[in-house]
Design brief:
mainly alpha
């Protein structure tokens, strides 16, 4: 479940964080809690990057968008700054996501198998 931001989802995130602070990893995969929250943050971040990127394209100075006016140039500058800060969040998301996958794999969870072959159940069915 993406976006587990209701009361039940938040309690699961809290339980996953408690598990994490005790030195154990929460369950990997498509679960409610910290993984769902992190995937939801990723989707929101990438969506915001796409929206600001399209808006920047529409107001590029010297282009055919709204940039022929000073207001268009100001919009370009503002949107570019917003896009840059959102891109920092995207890097945090990707680095955190890949690091979590590597950490789970090192700890014995077969996440790479699930990522590249499919679910663990589906991988076992192929044998």
């Amino acid at each position: 479940m993406l976006f587990p931001w209701n009361a039940n989802g938040l309690s699961m995130i809290k339980a996953d964080m408690t598990t994490l602070f005790k030195g154990r990893l929460p369950q990997a995969g498509r679960t409610v809690g910290l993984p769902g929250f992190w995937h939801g943050i990723g989707i929101l971040t990438m969506t915001a990057l796409a929206i600001t990127g399209v808006l920047i394209f529409l107001v590029i100075p010297g282009g055919r968008g709204a940039s022929s006016s000073p207001a268009g140039a100001a919009a370009f500058t503002t949107l570019s700054g917003i896009h840059r800060y959102i891109s920092y969040m995207a890097w945090v998301y990707w680095i955190g996501h890949v690091s979590a996958a590597i950490l789970h794999q090192v700890k014995g969870d077969p996440v790479f198998r699930a990522i590249f072959i499919g679910t663990i159940k589906a991988a076992n069915d192929r044998r």
